[in-house]
Write a structure and sequence with these properties.
Elements: H1 2-39, E1 43-44, E2 50-51, H2 57-61, H3 65-97, H4 101-112, H5 119-130, H6 135-154, H7 160-168, H8 177-202, H9 205-213, H10 218-246, H11 250-255, H12 263-272, H13 277-309
Antiparallel strand pairs: 1-2
Helix pairs in contact: 1-13, 3-8, 3-10, 6-7, 8-10, 9-10, 10-13, 12-13
Length: about 300
């Protein structure tokens, strides 16, 4: 009889301990989520606001080719930024994790220093760099053009003329998908590096030595030993990068201008400009559902792959 009583007492103590966290999640996560879901079935009022007349028109409107193209562009940009973060962040994490202990903290500090600056300020810095009269274009139009002009004077040839004309024209950097991808990679690269670093640091180097003792090449040892054992960090980092990239609106708004519109910009415009709360809520809920499904599928596929190789 004492065992059930102690179990119930432990359960009550556990509920008391977690009740503040549960209350916080219910008030600031679950209730707003249910409110957004309910508003998504309403109708826009004449002067904004919500008319509580149930309808599926907001979700049917998402099938418009315009919004489907925006969704696809958003997934493409977020996916490209995630892949680039993985290609840059994984080797960077491997480099940091394999340095002597006295250098690791210094490298990690350098990695997180950008987080000490406001996100908006960092995006404005990229706006300054990528604009037509920014430093990159000044270097291109003046430095590269001067070098080509010097070569043309030293070695006369007919192909220098079109090259001179090309280097005289500023590069189109601002207002492109590439500028948005650069901004997203810069913003979320640390979120890829840190989980990968944690995974690589836990890796036992004796396993790699054992693979090489069994005549595995460095490439084969990496593919068969290192990558499977550190894949959890790569998967976690990919999710941490992909999710905020899909919902980004500040970066595409500043660096993409009017040419690059992502779904986050559409949601922002529906709430803040068009005041169409029901349609904005439908967009938000569908986007959140897609990210949730993609995240769960990504983790499940990663887990199944890891069990299959084990």
């Amino acid at each position: 009889m004492a065992q059930p009583l102690r179990t119930r007492r432990d359960l009550l103590r556990l509920l008391i301990l977690i009740s503040p966290s549960l209350l916080w999640l219910v008030i600031f996560f679950l209730l707003p989520l249910l409110l957004v879901f309910a508003i998504s079935f309403g109708q826009r009022g004449t002067y904004g606001g919500v008319q509580w007349t149930p309808t599926l028109a907001n979700y049917a409107r998402l099938l418009d080719p315009l919004y489907l193209r925006i969704f696809l562009r958003t997934l493409f940009i977020a996916g490209t930024a995630t892949v680039l973060c993985a290609l840059i962040g994984y080797p960077m994490a491997f480099f940091i994790a394999t340095r002597p202990a006295r250098w690791r903290n210094a490298f990690l500090l350098l990695l997180v220093i950008p987080f000490w600056t406001n996100f908006l300020v960092r995006m404005y810095a990229w706006l300054f760099l990528l604009r037509d009269n920014g430093p990159i274009n000044v270097l291109w139009t003046e430095g590269i053009h001067a070098a080509v002009a010097w070569l043309a004077a030293a070695i006369p040839a007919p192909f220098w003329e079109p090259l001179l004309q090309a280097t005289s024209t500023p590069l189109r950097l601002f207002g492109t998908d590439g500028a948005v991808i650069v901004g997203l990679v810069y913003a979320w690269l640390p979120d890829m590096v840190l989980p990968c670093y944690a995974a690589v640091e836990r890796l036992d180097p004796r396993l790699v030595e054992a693979a090489q003792d069994l005549y595995a090449t460095r490439v084969r040892a990496f593919l068969r030993v290192v990558l499977p054992l550190t894949r959890s960090g790569l998967i976690t980092g990919s999710v941490l990068v992909f999710v905020p990239c899909v919902g980004a609106y500040v970066t595409p708004d500043l660096l993409g201008g009017a040419r690059t519109v992502m779904i986050g910009n559409v949601i922002y415009s529906q709430f803040m400009m068009a005041r169409d709360y029901p349609f904005g809520s439908a967009l938000s809920f569908v986007l959140m559902a897609l990210m949730l499904v993609a995240t769960v599928a990504y983790f499940r596929l990663g887990g199944e792959g890891g069990r299959g190789r084990g």
